């Protein structure tokens, strides 16, 4: 029993850390979730359909992109391509995070269903000090998944009663939060160059070409910038 206590204490400590770190993200996600549910409902989706979509897809950007182009009958190939392009960044995030998580290969593969921009950023920041454990990741992922599913469903039920969150700036909550997370990575030359190049390329592509091409373009530009800005010994 004495040998089990340190393990149990560490397990609980990791869960508490995950809950603490994800709490601001979960709060910021509420107006976005409600907005998605309301928009999806206005497009003709039932609350049940919104719930199933949020629970199975769990990708806010891709879901908004799909709803924006939703017509009857739904253009399945167009929606699938847009979703694939927007979520292609998850491949890069997964490759970056995999060596830093303390889970088996199968556990990592399954748990990355809960991979989001915010969970990735929080985990990368934590990995600067210690490995990312399964307990920490599960606490973040399950809370954010439940939060997104429940409140998008509620948004579908409430529908037009919500009004437009943009009036009070709630639509910018997630963006502002992620800017804060990125700022927490530090101010090294490589980090600053990577963020600046990625943001500039994404903004230019969005302006001249449009969504969803700016997502993949910004990600690829950031990777190239990070490689070129990294010290020569880190590349080898």
Explain this structure:
Keywords: Cell membrane, Membrane, Transmembrane, Transmembrane helix, Transport. It comes from Microvirga lotononidis. Belongs to the AzlC family. The chain crosses the membrane at residues 22-42, 74-92, 135-162, 168-185, 192-209, 215-230. One of its GO terms (biological process) is L-valine transmembrane transport. By secondary structure, this protein is an all-alpha fold. It has two domains: 4-185, no CATH class; 186-236. Helices cover 74% and strands 2% of the residues. It has twelve helices and two strands. It has helices at residues 4-42, 47-57, 60-68, 76-87, 89-97, 105-111, 117-127, 134-158, 173-183, 189-208, 213-229, 232-235; strands at residues 101-102, 132-133. The chain has a two-stranded parallel ribbon with strand order 1-2. Helix 2 runs antiparallel to helix 8 and helix 7 (117-127) packs parallel to helix 9. The mean pLDDT is 81.
């Amino acid at each position: 029993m004495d040998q089990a206590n340190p393990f149990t204490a560490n397990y609980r400590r990791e869960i508490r850390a995950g809950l603490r770190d994800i709490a601001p993200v979960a709060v910021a996600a509420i107006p976005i979730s409600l907005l998605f549910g309301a928009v999806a409902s206005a497009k003709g989706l039932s609350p049940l359909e919104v719930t199933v979509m949020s629970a199975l897809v769990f990708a806010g950007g891709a879901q908004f992109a799909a709803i924006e182009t939703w017509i009857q009958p739904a253009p399945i190939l167009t929606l699938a391509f847009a979703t694939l392009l927007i979520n292609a960044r998850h491949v890069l995030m997964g490759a970056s995070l995999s060596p830093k998580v303390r889970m088996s290969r199968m556990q990592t593969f399954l748990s990355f269903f809960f991979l989001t921009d915010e969970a990735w950023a929080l985990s990368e920041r934590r990995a600067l000090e210690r490995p990312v454990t399964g307990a920490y990741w599960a606490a973040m992922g399950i809370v954010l998944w439940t939060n997104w599913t429940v409140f998008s469903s509620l948004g579908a039920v409430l529908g037009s009663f919500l009004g437009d969150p943009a009036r009070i700036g709630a639509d910018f909550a997630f963006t502002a939060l992620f800017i804060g997370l990125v700022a927490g990575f530090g101010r090294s030359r490589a980090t600053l160059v990577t963020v600046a190049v990625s943001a500039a390329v994404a903004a230019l592509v969005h302006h001249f070409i449009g969504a969803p091409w700016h997502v993949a373009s910004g990600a690829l530009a950031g990777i190239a910038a990070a490689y070129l800005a990294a010290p020569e010994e880190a590349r080898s």
